[in-house]
């Protein structure tokens, strides 16, 4: 049975002893990164062989499991750098900037507290909030992460996957998110997200202080406020989408819009205000939230390719004919064959849903012989006809 993981975060103010341990952990990670760059080691096993002895000598007072976790953290950073180089992306020598402490060893949840050791003789307990305790109730806590401002617990659980009865297409737009299929349709209004971005931009532009540092601090403050407000709105939307999909035993289908911001670059014949509006749309945040919540609930996710996404808002979902657009009717498309008007978002959602069903049915494959060797005189035993099976699902 597969596992799903997520993180539960709460605020936390560390003591000076914990801050010192976080600083030592950061130093161990950076030392491991330097050692990996010098020796060319990027895997966890190789980095442990070349670096564990040095860490043991230099940080002998720190428990050994923190040294192992620091090497693991460094191996992950070096692996990400190696992947970027393979893609042709220029990268600088990485390092861990913020103080941090990560461990998956020798910690316990004792009542309302997270208990772990700074050293063999010193034990620390961190009080957990009511929300954190409710979130981890009945779940397996796998690790914890401390920063100067927060503590995060990583939990996991067994999930039960289901066979989808239908497919829920999702169409992301500047002012709304539409999801549905041929049976039902729901549209979530996101105009408030646009208004938040517009208001924040006006406030930042109105700052007239001569000190650049003060303007930067204030801009960062309003930017953080905008990000948190937008995330909360999208949290409500994504939670509704996943809950509805699980209730109706549906698979969620996403279109591929990678590179959409390239359409709104300077010099593409768009005005400054229009480019600012389109580039402030959280195109990928809603997808990120839906994906991790769907994984936690066991809801299947289907990601279409560029070729499968092409033409989802231009083809009639009923007959497949190319739709015509009338500027007098905003976001309304006319089908010459069906003789009817359709909403552009509804057309896109229905096409995405249908193409997700096609992807799912094709991934199952067609019927074939269940035996590898050639049959002799007896009849051939066939597997289930996948195409007929899937036609009864949608």
Account of the 3D structure:
The protein is of the alpha+beta class and 394 residues long. It folds into two domains: 3-158, no CATH class; 166-354, no CATH class. Helices cover 44% and strands 20% of the residues. A five-stranded mixed sheet has the order 10-9-8-11-12. Helix 1 crosses helix 3 and helix 5 runs antiparallel to helix 6. The longest helix is centred in the middle third of the chain and has 36 residues, at 212-247. It is globular and about 80 Å long. The two termini are 26 Å apart.
Count up the helices. 11
Percentage of β-strand residues: 15-25%
Spatial ordering of strands, largest sheet: 10-9-8-11-12
Number of DSSP-assigned strands: 15
Brief overview, please?
The chain has 394 residues and is an alpha+beta fold. 44% of the residues lie in helices and 20% in strands.
Show the helix and strand layout.
Layout: E1 3-11, H1 16-39, H2 44-58, H3 64-86, E2 101-103, E3 107-110, E4 113-117, E5 123-127, H4 130-136, E6 140-146, E7 150-158, E8 166-172, E9 176-180, E10 185-189, H5 191-205, H6 212-247, E11 250-254, H7 272-279, H8 285-297, E12 301-303, H9 306-309, E13 324-325, E14 332-335, E15 340-343, H10 344-364, H11 386-391
Parallel strand pairs: 8-11, 11-12
Antiparallel strand pairs: 1-7, 2-6, 3-4, 4-5, 6-7, 8-9, 9-10, 13-14, 14-15
Helix pairs in contact: 1-2, 1-3, 2-3, 5-6, 6-8
Core attributes:
394 residues, alpha+beta, five-stranded mixed sheet, four-stranded antiparallel sheet, 15 strands, globular, disordered C terminus
């Amino acid at each position: 049975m597969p596992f799903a993981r997520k993180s539960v975060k709460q605020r936390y103010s560390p003591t000076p002893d914990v801050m010192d341990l976080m600083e030592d952990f950061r130093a161990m990670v950076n030392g491991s990164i330097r050692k990996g760059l010098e020796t060319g080691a990027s895997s966890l096993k190789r980095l442990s062989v070349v670096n564990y002895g040095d860490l043991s000598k230099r940080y002998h007072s720190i428990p050994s499991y923190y040294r192992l976790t620091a090497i693991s953290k460094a191996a992950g950073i070096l692996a990400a750098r190696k992947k970027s180089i393979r893609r042709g992306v220029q990268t600088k020598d990485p390092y861990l900037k913020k103080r941090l402490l990560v461990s998956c060893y020798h910690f316990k949840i004792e009542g309302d507290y997270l208990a772990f050791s700074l050293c063999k003789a010193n034990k620390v307990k961190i009080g957990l909030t009511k929300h954190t305790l409710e979130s981890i109730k009945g779940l397996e806590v796998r690790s914890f992460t401390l920063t100067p401002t927060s503590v995060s617990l990583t939990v996991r659980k067994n999930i039960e996957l289901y066979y989808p009865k239908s497919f829920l297409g999702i169409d992301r737009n500047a002012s709304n998110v539409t999801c549905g299929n041929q049976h039902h349709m729901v549209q979530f209004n996101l105009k408030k997200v646009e208004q938040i971005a517009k208001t924040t931009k006006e406030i930042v532009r109105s700052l007239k202080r001569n000190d650049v540092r003060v303007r930067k601090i204030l801009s960062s403050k309003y930017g953080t406020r905008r990000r948190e407000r937008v995330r909360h709105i999208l949290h409500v939307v994504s939670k509704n989408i996943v809950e509805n999909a699980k209730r109706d035993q549906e698979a969620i289908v996403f279109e591929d819009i990678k590179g959409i911001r390239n359409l709104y670059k300077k010099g593409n014949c768009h005005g400054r205000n229009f480019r600012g509006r389109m580039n402030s749309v959280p195109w990928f945040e809603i997808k990120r939230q839906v994906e991790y919540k769907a994984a936690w609930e066991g809801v299947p996710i289907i990601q279409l390719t560029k070729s499968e996404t092409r033409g989802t808002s231009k083809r009639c979902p009923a007959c497949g004919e190319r739709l015509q657009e009338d500027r007098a009717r905003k976001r309304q498309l006319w089908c010459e064959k069906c003789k009817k008007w359709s909403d552009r978002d509804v057309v896109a959602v229905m096409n995405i849903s249908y193409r997700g069903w096609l992807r799912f049915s094709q991934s199952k494959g067609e019927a074939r012989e269940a035996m590898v060797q050639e049959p002799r005189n007896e009849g051939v035993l066939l597997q289930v006809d996948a195409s007929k099976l899937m036609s009864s699902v949608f």
